[in-house]
Amino acid sequence: MERVRPRREDFQRAVGRFPILHDLPPPALDALFERSTEILAGKDFFGTQGLEPSPDDLLDVAVLAALPVLNLGVDWYRGFHTFILYPAEFVADVEEMDEVGLIHSGPEIRAGEAWAHGPVVLAMDEVRSSGQGEGFNVVAHELAHQIDQLNGDMDGYPPLHEGMDRQQWASVFSAAWQRLQDEIQRGQEPTLDPYAAESPAEFFAVATEMYFDAPVWLHEQHPDMYTQLDQLYQMSKWFAKKD
Ligand SMILES: [Zn+2]
Asked: For 30, 31, 58, 238, which has the most beta carbons within 10 A of its beta carbon?
């Protein structure tokens, strides 16, 4: 696969395809360009099921993948080396262990998938539906799983920065988890995709999606969780008002 640095105008066109990137101030776009370039150079990209990824496909993945590590650096993606790209949603043969240790298996439709220390698997049609500001972002979701397992299990506890309070993270996420369970049980409109209720790992991945794709909404609905995620991902610093 070629390793050329993307042209800035091609990068800008990729940015143009994703509304969540439109409001980034120029210095943040410069940083996004650098991160995207590092991801394109440092990771392998393979198409499967007949997909031969075009340069624009790679850029679409790269600009969305650059966002979660915009302020953290691509070293936070050191746990994986490869993106596998499908043309469309794929059927995964799932084997899952539940709390009591039973293995459940069966086909399940997936938009993306993050294997433990394995490749990040994405469906390109879902990549193109991501980043539209509607709370759907399969790239942020799968990469949140990668960040989550940097410190061990995929369990909703990513590595936190110095100065962040682990207890506070746990209590904020526990409260938000409980709220989602209550909303689902009462039959109320859930404030997060009910898929988040599958496990703490999925909860963190879905919350990350919302943080990047619908931050205003997340801030309104879950201000404490927004604050924790903002301490981790640090996006609000680009928008801080200077007096
Ligand atoms: Zn997930």
From this structure: 58
211 Ramachandran zone, left/alpha/beta (phi>0; psi -120 to 50): alpha
Distance 145 CA to ligand 1 centre (A): 7
* Distance from Cα 112 to the centre of ligand 1, integer Å: 8
Q: Strand, helix or coil at 96?
A: strand
36-79 pLDDT, tens digit per residue, is 999 999 999 999 999 999 999 999 999 999 999 999 999 999 99
Q: Hey, which CATH number is domain 8-239, 3.40.390.10, 3.40.50.720, 3.40.50.12710, 2.60.40.10?
A: 3.40.390.10
Q: How far is the CA of 27 from the centre of ligand 1 (A)?
A: 31
Residue 25 Cα to ligand 1 midpoint, Å, equals 30
Q: Looking up tokens 């969305």, which residue turns up? A: 64
What is the domain partition of the chain in residue ranges?
A: 8-239
pTM: 0.88
98-149 pLDDT per residue, tens = 555 444 444 555 666 666 667 999 999 999 999 999 999 999 999 999 999 9
Distance 206 CA to ligand 1 centre (A): 7
Compute the distance from residue 55 Cα to the ligand 1 centre, in Å: 26
Rounded to the nearest angstrom, the distance between the alpha carbon of 243 and the centre of ligand 1 is 40
Per the rule left: phi > 0, alpha: psi between -120 and 50, beta: everything else, 191 is alpha
- The alpha carbon of 142 and the centre of ligand 1 are apart by a number of angstroms equal to 6
Q: Using the predicted structure, report yes or no on whether residue 160 has a pLDDT greater than 90.
A: yes
- Please name which of 158, 165, 194 lies closest in space to residue 177, comparing C-alpha atoms: 194
